[in-house]
Amino acid sequence: TEAGNLVATNLRTDLFVDVLRNNLVMGQLGARVLGGLTGNVDMPRKPTASTIGTVTEIGSASETNPVTAKVTLSPKRASAYVEVSKQALIQSAMALESMIRDDLVSGAGVHIENMGFNGVGSNSQPLGLRNTSGIGTVAAGTAGGFAWGNFVDLESACANANAEPDMLAGYAINTK
């Protein structure tokens, strides 16, 4: 009943503030992305090399065979949906459909990368780095504290596994 009913409110869609999301880093660290897949994928690999030995001048060489294996990749699904009324699409002051699409695509990217780090390897989740056995890990200090010696240990773990650093290598750590 007073002047407060006369104050206009401006919806500033040009100042839209989106949710803060985790940065996607796996691609920068060398993760290979296989696009356009429609089914399972088998990748051959050689986990063990041939064994070479020395012999005397007239000695016989020992037979050796490299060991081969394959890694099988199978599809996993990440999904969500947003129910939007026709009236909301018509009356929204901003491009609601593109905002929702961007939200779902960005959320899927963060979810997929999270599974790349933390997936448990079930039928619905890929096996993430943290749960992959046989890869090198280096424990940090308590509560995530990192000292210079931890960085040296990281470099040493990679070098001892004959992993050559290149432009697509690095470390993923959190801010703790």
Average pLDDT level = 86
Strand content: 5-15%
Terminal-residue CA separation: 53 Å
Number of helices: 3
Uncertain runs are none
Taking all Cα atoms into account, the compactness measure Rg is 26 Å
Tell me the overall shape.
Answer: elongated
Secondary structural class: alpha+beta
Spatial strand order of the main sheet: 1-2
How many strands, what sense, and barrel or not for the largest sheet?
A: 2 strands, antiparallel
Q: How many extended strands?
A: 2
Secondary structure elements and pairings:
Layout: E1 41-48, E2 67-73, H1 86-91, H2 96-118, H3 148-160
Antiparallel strand pairs: 1-2
Notes on the protein architecture:
This protein is an alpha+beta fold. 24% of the residues lie in helices and 9% in strands. The chain contains three helices and two strands. A two-stranded antiparallel sheet has the order 1-2. The longest helix is centred in the middle third of the chain and has 23 residues, at 96-118. It starts with 40 loop residues before the first strand and ends in a 16-residue tail after the last helix.
